[in-house]
Each structure stands twice: as structure tokens, then as C-alpha cells.
């Protein structure tokens, strides 16, 4: 009998900084949609993409979920949330 040992990720806890960022983006985008618009009032899709990536990563990591595959762990990590938030800030300041 040949058994393969698959490592089970250790249980994680809620990551409050990531979850807080995700909740703030969610509430901010809901209450003030022009946050994701350019100076002309049109949707800034690059800014929205960066904010939604930060929000998604914040929710995934914030609730304590850690994906098994390294690529998904990288995309939805707390560091990815911070990087996407920084990208959104840079994009917002360019306009």
C-alpha cells in the first residue's frame, strides 16, 4: 500500500488588518462610488481592479483562509492585499 502524505495547513486565525482593509474598501466603495472614478467622472477600471484585488485578498486572508496552492496563497495573502492597496493609491494619485 502506497500512501502519499499531503501536508495539512495549520489552522489560522482571523487577520484583523487584512479584514479591516477589506471592510473599509467595501464600505467606502458602497457609500462613495466616485472613489473609483477619474477626474472626468468615468470609471477608472485600473483603480477599481486594484481596489477589488485588495478587497478580495483582504477578505480571503482576513477570515483566516489560507489556500493550499502557493500561487493562490501569494495572490490572496496579506502582503498581496497591501501591494494592491499601494497600487490603488499610486493609480489614484496619478489622476
Q: Tell me the structural class.
A: mainly alpha
Alpha carbon gyration radius: 16 Å
| Helicity range | 55-70%
- One letter per element, helices H and strands E, the order comes to HHHH
Which regions contain 5 or more consecutive residues with pLDDT less than 50?
none
The count of strands amounts to 0
Provide mean pLDDT, rounded: 91
Count of the domains: 1
Counting DSSP H or I runs of 4 or more residues, the number of helices is 4
Terminal residue distance: 63 Å
Shape field? elongated
Largest sheet: none
Key features?
95 residues; single chain; mainly alpha; elongated
Protein described:
- The protein is an all-alpha fold and 95 residues long.
- The protein has one domain (16-94).
- Helices cover 60% and strands 0% of the residues.
- It contains 4 helices and no strands.
- The chain has helices at residues 16-31, 45-62, 70-75, 78-94.
- Helix 1 runs antiparallel to helix 2 and helix 2 packs antiparallel against helix 4.
- The longest helix has 18 residues, at 45-62.
- It is elongated and about 65 Å long.
Amino acid at each position: 500500500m502506497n500512501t502519499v502524505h499531503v501536508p495539512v495547513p495549520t489552522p489560522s486565525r482571523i487577520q484583523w488588518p487584512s479584514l479591516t482593509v477589506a471592510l473599509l474598501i467595501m464600505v467606502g466603495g458602497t457609500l462613495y462610488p466616485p472613489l473609483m472614478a477619474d477626474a472626468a467622472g468615468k470609471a477608472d477600471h485600473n483603480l477599481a481592479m486594484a481596489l477589488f484585488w485588495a478587497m478580495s485578498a483582504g477578505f480571503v486572508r482576513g477570515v483566516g483562509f489560507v489556500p493550499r496552492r502557493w500561487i493562490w496563497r501569494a495572490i490572496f495573502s496579506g502582503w498581496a492585499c497591501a501591494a494592491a492597496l499601494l497600487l490603488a493609491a499610486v493609480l489614484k494619485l496619478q489622476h
